[in-house]
Amino acid sequence: MASLSCSDAEITLLIVAGGNSRRMGDDKLMLPVPPKGTPLVRHVAELLLPLATEVLVVANAPEVCAAVREIGQDDSELDHDGAYPSKPVTCLSDDAPGAGPLGGLATGLRRIDGWALTVAGDMPFLSAATCRYLFRRSDLGCEAVVPVLEGRSQPLHALYNRRCLPAVERALSSGLRRMDSFWKEVRVRMIPADHLRTFDPELRTFTNVNTPTEWEEARALLSQG
Q1: 64: Cβ–Cβ under 8 A, 6 or more apart, which residues?
Q2: If you write DSSP's letter for every residue of 187-211 in order, what string do you get?
Q3: Ramachandran category for residue 143: left, alpha or beta (phi over 0 → left; psi -120 to 50 → alpha)
Q4: Is 60 helix (H, G, I), strand (E, B) or coil?
Q5: Most buried of 18, 22, 48, 132, CB within 10 angstroms?
Q6: What's phi and psi for 11, nearest 5 deg?
Q7: CA dist 98 to 18, 102, 105, 217, Å?
Q8: How much of the chain exceeds pLDDT 90, in percent?
Q9: In the predicted model, what is the mean pLDDT of residues 77-103?
């Protein structure tokens, strides 16, 4: 019997959109993405919306929640059949404010049954094709699928199954905050980033923006279309 992968099942897009944007100065999740000025967090959701059956956004800022709830409300977002995407978008307050992305992961996993494609809300170049490849590498033999770029894991560009939740909760209860603090208790499949260059030759999918300089560089690329 073939192993069931998440490409055969329902996928939740889980966007971890907390943080305080200290280095950016302004709320980076609301930065306007050219050419339409779409808030960055909404842009992230729209990039991966075709892959998911639902979208969960873990955020505490009302403006972030308002931005993602607007998905599907204008003609530019019609699908190929001329209909709006019929996918629920839910914004959740973090169950454990101050626990960082790990707390956001726990908040999302508590609300799903299967796999969550988990990304940060400040990644403007996410590659749907790359994420589909990660789906294909998931099966009943693992609880997480995590890319590794230049020797560093990318835990906020990864797949997690709800089966990770007990280990995540134990880590949080122990005062741990690192995204990899629970990995020793689950089966993690590491994916070398070079395996993903077929889909994203420059591996921009892993780019996030934390500073005004990083945002200007990203905005210049986004403006090129």
Answers
A1: 17, 27, 29, 30, 39, 41, 57, 91, 121
A2: -EEEEEGGGGTTT-TT-GGG----S
A3: alpha
A4: coil
A5: 18
A6: -120, 135
A7: 9, 10, 13, 30
A8: 78
A9: 75
